[in-house]
Design goal:
single chain
Length: 76
């Protein structure tokens, strides 16, 4: 029997890495309950082991390479 996972909220600038306090981009939801937050660096170190133990991984580290869009004034 598998249960549906609750939808996860996007990570924000207020979410901090549990290892170093930097902005978190990875959330590991543990099968026994609870979650761990990691910056991209510490996430890369721990995500494989957490996934092997059954954690659900929300990885938003691709946001680090996004370029912000700049609104341009309309040409007249």
């Amino acid at each position: 029997m598998t249960g549906a996972l609750a939808p996860t909220k996007p990570l924000t600038a207020l979410d901090r890495c549990d290892r170093c306090g930097a902005q978190a981009y990875i959330r590991a939801t543990l099968p026994v309950g609870g979650e761990l937050l990691f910056c991209a660096h510490h996430g890369r170190q721990h995500v494989a082991a957490l996934r092997d133990k059954g954690a659900d991984i929300q990885d938003e580290s691709a946001r680090l390479s996004e370029t912000p869009s700049i609104a341009r004034d309309e040409e007249r």
